[in-house]
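Lab notebook page, bench 4
Experiment: in silico fold of construct C2
Operator: M.H.
Input chain length: 140 residues
Purpose: comparison with the prior construct
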Amino acid sequence: MKILLIAAAGILFYVWQKRTKAPCGAEKPEAGSPVNSGYGEKTRYAPGLKISFPDFTLEYAGTSRVQGPNKAKWYMTSHLFNISNGKDAAQVSWSGGAGDIAPFSFEFGGKKYNIEKAYSESAGRLENDELVISPVPRGR
């Protein structure tokens, strides 16, 4: 019986550790500590955490609840992100809406970008606190 309890505790600890650690065992980012990221990379975000991309800085601003189209009885959650480059600032949002987890395109500083959350075409499945941002090639 003791061996069974010890094995169960070990499994629970392993599952807890997987849920609380970033990939490769790195700790989750904390607010106040700046993070650098590149385009096309899985990036963890958190409220108050500033993430520097090559052309702008992104900060998670939380969520908003938006009613479905045509005064539907259901609501969807939008994730809000503030972006700035020292000169310009904007807020972009991403929502899975009614289940569509496609990239959301936005324009900032004269360039187009895609933000992917939930699933990335290049990086695969994303955790709830991960996103991928990629520039959109010119002409698209």
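Observations: The helical segments are 2-20. Confidence is low (pLDDT under 50) at residues 4-26.
Next step: discuss at group meeting.
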